[in-house]
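Worked example 2:
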Amino acid sequence: MSVRKRVAVAVTAGAVALTAAACGSSSSSSTAAAAGSGGSGGNATPITLAASVELTGPASAIGKTWQHGIELAVAAANGKDGFTVAGKKYRWKLDLQDNQSTADQAIAQYRAFAGAGDTFILGPGLTSAFLPAFNSFGAGKGIVLTPSAAAAQAKPQPGQSLFITNNTGQSATVNSVVKATVAKYTPKTVAILLPQDSAGQLYGNLYAAAFAAEGVNVVYKKQFPSGTSDFNSYIAGIKALSPDMVVTGYLDSIVQPFITQALGAGLTDPVFVGTFGSDSAALGSNANSVKGYSWPVPTRAVDNPADPSVASYRTAWKAAYGSFPTAADAQSLAFYDPVLVLTQALVKAGSVTDTAAISKAFLEVTSWPQQVMKETFDPTSHTALYPHQIGVYDKGTVTYLDAPS
């Protein structure tokens, strides 16, 4: 299979028109089909936006969400006529490729991006794919955006700029959502069980420290090997300690079978908490059987019709894909706003080739057309900074609570 496998977005223009009202601007009108093909922007000069995304494989669900966020951002940025940099019109030409949720495919794609001279690169989102891919980039020059929770471990070379669009791997972020969770449920003890990989190690340590800082006793903290499907031995150990709360994750595909097996083993008293990467879908058929369930929102809850900050985005999403976004689709904002920030950085820098000037401008951008997230980027870590929420499931109702800043 070609390492530059393109994804064709085959939808009718009428079904996916991003109207001016949907995008919150009278100057923007495009389609998701145009975003996928790079066909919007009139006669503007194309700039390749290369993307390595998990469209198939174990992470395909979140990969599809990332794809949608990228497509909507490209459509919003391009509009009818493109965007103006130093008096000239440009448009993004999206080269979206499937890394199949594997490091090998992502590495091959990054090498192909470097060989093609691509300057602007998105993804991968999975840490297990991103770190080896980025490290294989060698002396390739460019600006890279990724939501990988452990991307801070990467070591950019001269001429490379890495921006981490998701701050869920930051201690301040975990402290904030844990504080909100503790305020909601007031647990005295907590058990933590996460995967045995770099993200699991990171979250395990951050969550343990955050709960301890809130005066909650961490009575259990373990990791399980990747691919584990039988959690009963871990559940037995947790059940023996009778914690008030059990934290697990970091994907719905892990949380759902864990909760099912826990309830089947009689572990029904704790409140279950998913880490970043999980959401309300993790409950599945267990929704009426749990005492309580909560999860942190990685960006902003795009499934919340009561939140005016996501109203235009929800409208654009429905116009493009036929239905409103779900809780899991909050992940799409990890690419949507950052791509628009990148676009604004080109405009501010007055260049589409001076990566140093563009990177500097990226850190200075605070507002942009079709903005959803209130975010900036830390000038030292290059990590996105924005407020968080937690989702709470209680007796058939999902509500969202703002976490303290």
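Residues 1-39 have pLDDT under 50 and may be disordered. The chain has two domains: 13-167+307-373, 171-297+389-402.
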